[in-house]
Task: inverse folding
């Protein structure tokens, strides 16, 4: 994983079948990047639903949540609709896992992203990160605590 204090690698990935999102477009916002192995898996479904349910808590700290996996933009669209997610899912699909690899969280043997979270500040600097075992939902508390600490220190 990338070290805290490192400039976050930029990316431009599909957020819908016909729209892309780039990290540089989010300057001025805190960004919570949530890497996960796969749409539709039980742990990933629970994790993404938990982030969706907590979205307003993140927004209070000027933060946007972005989910990222190697699934296609079409899979993401169906998954987000089914799970009622209110945040973008980015398709790290082609070339498969390229962005996950830039962030040090691509599992080449399994062919998917590891379960990891990065908090990137308003200037594009990584301020906190967490790597979880694949079968374990990390919840939102660690990311929220780190975000609260970050915004408290800015005041």
Result:
């Amino acid at each position: 994983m990338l070290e805290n204090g490192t400039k976050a690698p930029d990316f431009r990935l599909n957020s819908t079948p016909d729209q892309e999102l780039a990290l540089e477009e989010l300057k001025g916002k805190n960004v919570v990047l949530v890497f996960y192995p796969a749409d539709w898996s039980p742990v990933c479904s629970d994790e993404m639903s938990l982030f969706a349910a907590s979205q307003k808590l993140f927004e209070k700290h000027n933060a946007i949540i972005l989910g990222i996996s190697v699934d296609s933009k079409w899979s993401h669209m169906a998954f987000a609709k089914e799970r009622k997610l209110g945040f973008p899912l980015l398709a790290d699909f082609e070339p498969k896992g390229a962005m996950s690899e830039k962030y040090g969280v691509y599992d080449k043997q399994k062919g998917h992203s590891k379960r990891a979270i990065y908090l990137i500040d308003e200037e594009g600097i990584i301020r906190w990160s967490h790597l979880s075992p694949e079968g374990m939902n990390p919840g939102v508390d660690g990311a929220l605590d780190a975000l609260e600490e970050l915004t408290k220190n800015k005041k």
Notes: The mean pLDDT is 96.
